[in-house]
Amino acid sequence: MKLNEFLKPNNVEFSKSDKKIYDVVLKHPAHVQLMTIQKLATDAQTSVASVQRYCKKIGYTGFKEFKFQLKNYLLQRFDFEKNNSSYLSNYLKVANSFKNIEEDKISDFAEALVNSKHNYIIGIYYSSIPAKQLAMGMQDLNKISFCADNYLAASHWVGLIEEEDTLVVFSVSGNDPYIKKYISEPLSKLSRTYLITFNPDTKLSKYFKNCIVLPGKAFANNSAIDPQSLFSLFVEMIINHIARS
After folding, report:
1. Is the pLDDT of residue 83 over 70?
2. Which domains does the chain have, with CATH numbers?
3. Which of 98, 147, 185, 207 is 20 to 30 A away from residue 192, measured at CA?
């Protein structure tokens, strides 16, 4: 049985909400094992009740049983021992490819962080770790820097952000629907805005003056969790660049 058949039996009619949930799980099936029902609902831009209805519609008592059966399906489909070995090899391959990031982009980003009056840095869910790491690193370099791990908190910055500031957003998928809703005003006002993502096709790049696409999109999509450690590796590169300068 193919994954799309597992997620949508032939005799089931999908609503618009069902289709959104189906698309998220189909794209990142391994991620679901570490998701709460609230996180899946948010990623699918729908409600918790819609996720429960989807799970029942395809034959399960609820989200908990759906996750359990999806895990069993993935275990049967893939050779896990082989997969774990290849995971490390792929991780090292992606990490090594970071040396191919254009030096001009690293220098420009580092210069913006150093020369800004304040740095405002956002990272949601797993991306909150590298966002916090960058803010703390800049604080250690005596630059006033703030970090937020949700857009509601970041929205309180709107009245504080000035033209001399820098705004940075970490987003693995580059598909976050809340960016425009909560921080559209500073994005349009500032000349130094940066989106850091793994998605070269992100539609969010039009809201930012600068978009830095890190290598490893396929790895990010197939990882069980968002690869925040690769974001952290990029942060290390930036902080070291600044420290050397």
Report:
1. no
2. 3-77 (1.10.10.10), 100-244 (3.40.50.10490)
3. 98
CB within 8 Å of 190: residues ≥ 6 apart: 161, 163, 165, 166, 167, 209
Instruction: Locate 236 and state its tokens.
Output: 């290390």
Residue labelled with tokens 């797993």 = 126
What the block records as the tokens of 74 is 């993935």
Q: Does 74 or 218 have the greater pLDDT score?
A: 74
Enter the DSSP assignment of 214: P
Sheet holding 210-213: strands in order across? Answer: 145-148, 119-123, 166-171, 193-197, 210-213
Q: Alpha-carbon distance 132 to 181, whole Å?
A: 22
Q: What is the pLDDT of residues 164-191, one digit of tens each?
A: 999 999 988 888 777 877 888 888 888 8
Among the listed residues 183, 175, 174, 124, the one whose alpha carbon sits nearest the alpha carbon of residue 148: 124
CB-count burial class (<10 Å; 0-12, 13-18, 19+) for 96: exposed
* In contact, 179 and 206? CB cutoff 8 Å: no
